[in-house]
């Protein structure tokens, strides 16, 4: 029921969640205070929810292309599921649920066409401007490319989220050259900020120890891992890419899963520990070794995914509370604790999907064509200036101060495309331009 001025009867400044200060709620570009029934973090969430970047995720690859079938997740549905998991886990630990929700909805905004395969292609062709990383692109979208606010001189402030929201969405809070070493001694290829976006990064990270993730970012990161670990397996099984009984009945397939898990997700781990984690999952009553497509089987698979999400979240919740007690755990005052056995079980689920889908020999020619398509599209746009760029990117290109900055604009343009739009641009621009030049 709304009052005579169109506002709910409880309108007024929302009560802040304990554990957050005015410092956390500051925005890079100061905005006039609003006498709103929404909190600052609720406004952050709304800005991301209404962003064009989030809408585009509906046509971007999660594991398989969005138009392959009507069941598999897209980047958008995956992000919504991550937000649901993260919101509840974060709330149970004392985090502001809207803040965690914002981070979860934002976490994949920077993904280009064709998912991680597209990331690989764009990174290969973007070395002159510092490379490409989906998480760094996410920050770029939130703080620059998505237009909501701008400074008086025209400098974009992106969605102008709060300091805490930008920090929560920053999964890898370091520049490329500052990336930490992994357990196997190799420097991580992941990073969360490009050089020309450092000003906003320095602003929201002020006073925070280098590479430390906020509590909300840790919840988001875990929710992401949990979500895609179970849902990628569900998508693969329902779409007949593999059967879980293969892992039990075929020694070579089991070895493949264990080794893929070790190489991709648990470098340095003892294969016996990975094998033990797989055996624990297989022993669960809810494990679904076979799928026949019936409603009963689909319900069983859905119950399995639900039970596994609960299993992983409960383990993290209990371990975190055991270490940090029952106080609200927010910002940089605590860490999410994930027991080693749970970390291994999550990794095994990811390893199953990776072994049977991402590394499938049948899919490698498709992945190669996707990478080639994006590389050719970048090369075409490089060579034609602002001719084919969308108006806002064309303006960025004209205002760029050097070749590296212009290169970054081209990467921004290509990264913004959906899978189908990238294919269409390649068909009409690259092939058409090649045909035209052949006759000049």
Walk me through what this model shows.
57% of the residues lie in helices and 0% in strands. It contains 19 helices and no strands. The longest helix has 30 residues. The N and C termini lie far apart (68 Å). The N terminus and C terminus are likely disordered.
CATH architecture of the largest domain: Orthogonal Bundle
Work out the count of structural domains: 2
User: Which range best describes the helical content: under 10%, 10-25%, 25-40%, 40-55%, 55-70% or over 70%?
Assistant: 55-70%
Q: Could you tell me how far the N terminus lies from the C terminus, measured between alpha carbons in angstroms?
A: 68 Å
The helix-and-strand class reads: mainly alpha
H/E element order: HHHHHHHHHHHHHHHHHHH
Question: Could you list the spans in which at least 5 consecutive residues all have pLDDT below 50?
Answer: 1-12, 435-440
The radius of gyration computed from the alpha-carbon positions, rounded to a whole number of angstroms, is 23 Å
Query: The CATH topology of the largest domain is what?
Result: Hypothetical protein af1432
Separate helix tally: 19
CATH level 1 class label of the largest domain? Mainly Alpha
Largest sheet: none
Summarize model confidence as the mean pLDDT. Answer: 92
Q: What percent of residues are in strands?
A: under 5%
Q: How many β-strands, per DSSP?
A: 0
> What would you call the shape?
globular
Give me the CATH superfamily of the largest domain: Hypothetical protein af1432
């Amino acid at each position: 029921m709304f009052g005579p001025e169109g506002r709910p009867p409880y309108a007024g400044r929302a009560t802040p969640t304990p554990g957050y200060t005015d410092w956390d709620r500051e925005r890079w570009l100061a905005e006039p205070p609003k006498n709103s029934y929404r909190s600052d973090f609720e406004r952050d969430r709304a800005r991301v929810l209404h962003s064009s970047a989030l809408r585009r995720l509906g046509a971007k690859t999660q594991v398989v292309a969005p138009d392959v079938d009507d069941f598999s997740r897209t980047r958008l549905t995956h992000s919504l599921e991550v937000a649901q998991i993260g919101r509840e886990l974060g709330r149970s630990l004392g985090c502001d649920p809207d803040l965690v929700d914002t981070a979860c909805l934002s976490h994949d905004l920077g993904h280009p066409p064709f998912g991680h395969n597209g990331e690989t292609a764009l990174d290969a062709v973007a070395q002159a401007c510092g490379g490409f990383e989906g998480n760094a692109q996410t920050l770029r979208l939130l703080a620059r490319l998505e237009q909501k606010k701008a400074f008086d001189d025209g400098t974009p402030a992106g969605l102008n989220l709060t300091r805490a929201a930008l920090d929560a969405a920053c999964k890898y809070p370091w520049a490329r050259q500052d990336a930490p070493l992994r357990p196997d001694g190799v420097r991580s290829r992941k990073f969360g900020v490009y050089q020309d976006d450092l000003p906003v990064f320095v602003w929201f990270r002020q006073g925070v120890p280098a590479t430390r993730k906020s509590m909300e970012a840790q919840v988001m990161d875990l929710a992401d891992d949990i979500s895609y670990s179970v849902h990628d397996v569900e998508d693969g099984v329902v779409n007949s890419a593999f059967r879980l009984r293969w892992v039990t009945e075929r020694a070579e397939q089991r070895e493949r899963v264990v080794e893929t898990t070790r190489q991709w997700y648990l470098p340095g781990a003892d294969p016996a520990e990975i094998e033990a984690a797989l055996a624990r999952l297989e022993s669960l009553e809810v494990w679904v070794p076979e799928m026949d497509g019936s409603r009963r089987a689909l319900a069983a698979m859905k119950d399995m995914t639900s039970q596994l999400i609960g299993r992983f979240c409960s383990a993290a919740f209990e371990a975190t509370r055991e270490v940090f007690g029952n106080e609200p755990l927010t910002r940089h005052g605590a860490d999410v604790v994930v027991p080693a056995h749970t970390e291994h079980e999550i990794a095994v689920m990811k390893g199953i999907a990776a072994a049977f889908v991402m590394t499938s020999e049948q899919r490698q020619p498709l992945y190669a064509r996707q990478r080639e398509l994006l590389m050719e599209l970048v090369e075409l746009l490089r060579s034609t200036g602002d001719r084919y760029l969308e108006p806002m990117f064309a303006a960025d290109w004209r205002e760029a101060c050097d070749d590296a900055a212009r290169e970054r604009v081209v990467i921004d343009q290509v990264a913004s495309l959906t899978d189908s739009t990238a294919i269409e641009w390649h068909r009409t621009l690259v092939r058409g331009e090649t045909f035209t030049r052949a006759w000049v």
